[in-house]
Amino acid sequence: MAEQPDKESKTEEATEKKIRDSLDKGQVPHSREATVFASMLAILIAAVFFVPDNALKLRYTLESFIDRPESFLLANGADASAIMYVLAIECGKFIAPIIAALAIAGVAGGALQNQPQFVSNRIEPKLDRISIVKGWSRIFGVKGQVEFLKSVFKLSIVALAGYVALKSSYVDIFNALFMEPTATPKLMQDLSVRFLSAVVAATAVLVAADLAWSRFSWRRDLRMTRQEVKDEHKQAEGDPLVKMRLRSLQRDRSRRRMIAAVPKATLIIANPTHYSVALRYVREEGGAPVVVAKGKDLIALKIRFIAEQNGIPIYQDRSLARSLYASVEVDKMIPPEFYKAVAGVILFLGQRGRQTRPAG
Description:
Elements: H1 16-24, H2 32-49, H3 51-67, H4 77-111, H5 132-140, H6 142-168, H7 170-175, H8 184-221, H9 226-237, H10 240-260, E1 267-270, E2 275-280, E3 290-296, H11 298-309, E4 314-316, H12 318-327, E5 332-333, H13 339-352
Parallel strand pairs: 1-4
Antiparallel strand pairs: 1-2, 2-3, 3-5
């Protein structure tokens, strides 16, 4: 098994491809504290806006069982089921908003951090998840230490918030001994709201720090070695030797296709040995003359040889051949600046006939 590169050698920032692959695999920066914070905030919102009214309705229902027990029939099992059904409905109305708020907060806590996506390999069984060595490193590694510090901080915050909330409400709690029992739920609600508000406000600092840490840790784990960056760049760009071979094959195919098109030409413009440009011009086809093949040195000689075999006239013009070779691509019409020169060649060859041989 190949050795994994150590963290000290991973000095390069992750490339866009590495980041994209990590996101596709579901390896995204995630803060657990953000989800916990969202849940506590949802409980606080439910305690302020939903619990008072629902608790009052539930209290009226329960009071009716105590104040007017004779109004409820309890002669058989059907009567007992009806009473339990009523109680279940009222308790459900009391609990449903809290559960809905927690569910929405849990989904939002994860969705706002990263785009939701389904990744099947995240639920696949992996041996490293039950490895003692891996578990030891997770517990006592840097991440484990950070999680331990966050847990200590959260415990301290909860203890401090509880202490402050109880101390500030000491007089109210003492006066509750002399209050009507019906005022106790209101007092408990006020104490709960104060406690949750203090915890949420203090936890917001932890959430901000944890969000920054989770992204920093994610980026650090994605760092690459220089060799990994080079290998990825080579894979993206392709092996230079393979690319060179492919370009060579493409040139060979293009050259063979071009040579095969030489018999379709109607005239060849060349200098004595180095350049040859095969043109096709048929009045009935319309348009300007088209370059069907061009080449220099050995390719130029090959074009001339095929032209001689097929009886295609060859006209020698050093400057015109070089200019056409440099300016016009194969299978393209000649540009307007060559019209006059090429028209003169066509007129000259037309006067001499198709059997005109090159001078010299």
